[in-house]
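User: structure tokens for this one?
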Amino acid sequence: MKNLSFDQATHTYTIKGKAIPSVTQIASAVTGKSVSNIPPAVLAKATARGTAIHADVEGKAFETVEGAWIKAQLGDAEYSAEVQGAGEIAGEPFAGTCDLLGDDEIGDIKTQGEADVLFWTIQLNLYRRMFPDRKRLFVLWTPKSGNYKRMEIPVLSESLMGEVMDAYVGMQVLPSTWPAVVDEDKAPSLDLVVYTNNAGDLTTNAKAILAAVKAQLAGYKAENYSEANIAEAKRDKAELNAAEKKLNARRLELERDFMKPFGEFKDTISETCAEIKKASSLIDSVVREVEDREKEEKRALIVEWFDAQGIELFDIAQIWNPAWLNRTSKVKDIQMEILAKAEKTAADLVVLDRIGEPEAKAHYLSTLDLESALAEADRIKANRKRIEDMESSRKATIASKAPLPSVGTPKAPIAQPAQAVAQRSEGQASPEILERTMRVRGTMEQIVALGKWMNENDIDFEKLQ
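Assistant:
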């Protein structure tokens, strides 16, 4: 903003000679922050440390421990330091000085001992009103404890920033829960913001212990012990076991403490996801109910139209396409598709009528698949041809056999045994001989077998033709 000036001695910003509030003044007022209760000596010492760190970063010397860490966080990105600017909200002007201004980010360096996320969030979002094309906000927190952190700061909506300025103008303090309420202009973001992340920040003497153990293990070799010093061996074994147990117990204790924050974080996220899924499921049941009702109404409309057409070539179930019930499928297009199917079915039946295989035609009417029906016709013809070939082969085999003796040739009289003749001569009556004319019809093999049987049973016969 033009005509902006800053008085370092009084820390006052003016535009055209008129004093305007600073970003820090607004953030302090609406959060109720005050440095009046901090001992002057402590405040002066903290201020001196913060000034030194800011000067180190501004001059890009990065000679302090904090400056070196800040440089590592910035990486290769280009940032301008201590950039002044001005902005306004609802016509109320203000000004401030950004610690770090990048192409797409605004950053601020904090050196105090306790984190103040609400204050930082308001401060960084006021800076963003001065440089609105920046999309991301962050704080590089370098407390004296050495537990440095990079904290991402959420971007607040226009409505929430209006509440900040209203509170400042009305000399009110925002509630401690602000801005947990849902913003009217913008639904709360579900993107996770990481305020602190100390993963891997654990310094111990574990490596020194490992080196010491390796150096001392030479004295605990098995060959150094025998029956002569078995008591010493037992004592050393007990000491080693106790040391291992104590060291591992301490490791488990640290592991539990180290993972506890992540466990709490994991439980919170899991519970949140479960709530989101629950809400989504409830909505889904409503959506499905409406969609199912719409589909049934559309199905009834299609079936009613189909019945009105009087199509007897197939049933609607034979050609039903589930995609017809999708919203993208128009009823008019579905009707045209059904009529086209009816025309094709009629044409396919004409082809099958020319072939003249009723079974193939019946197969088609059950499948509406012309290729399958044609294949069925080929199968029927092939079976018929195979039967005809088998019958021809059988007849040829019978005709090719050698002529058999005539079954009508009378047999020579069979000599009667002398005993039988003697019996008849003694006055015994002979059985009555009968004659019957019969016409026999059968295969060649059957006729031959009959003649053989009659010969074996002494039955006289003659061939008539």
